[in-house]
Amino acid sequence: MSNAMTRNIIIIAVVAILVIAAVIAIPQLLNGPADEDGTEASATQAEDSDGGTSSDVADQAAADNKDAPSTASRSSDPELIAGVQVAARAANAQAPMRIDEITTMTSATAVGNRIVYRYDVSQRLPRGQINAMRDTIAQQNQRAVCSNAQVRQIIDRGAEIEYAYYGPGDQLLFSTPITSC
To answer: I need a labelling partner for 114 at 20 to 30 A (CA). Which of 78, 129, 142, 180 fits?
Structure first.
């Protein structure tokens, strides 16, 4: 794997992480201080633009995305779930995003507390190269996610980030979930 390809993958991972961090932090800033008992003063369920609750949207996303590489664990934090959904929509607004000569980030899907970024690799790669890519990308993404204090807090709250790589013929090559730091 070339240095340019590795650098580009890291850049996209960091941008995705920052989008999630911003989306989660904005509602917290807007909600203001917590009540004396430590609970937030805002409503307990976020609404999407159609008036449904965030859990309704997450359930629909899960139904629509049966081929997701992993099943997201469920979080009862509606702000976290809503934030992950907004981050997925923001990533999809930027998609497709060419990473390098063979890799394109094509979509992001929010399922519960997990955001799955889908990357399509346009050419067949030998199994050894796929394994090397998986190991390198998993380490780099884990390091990038966990080195950002704001994103680490979001992961500690229960958010999960997954990077799924697909080859020609819609074949899942590998997936690198980040569920803890």
So the answer is: 129
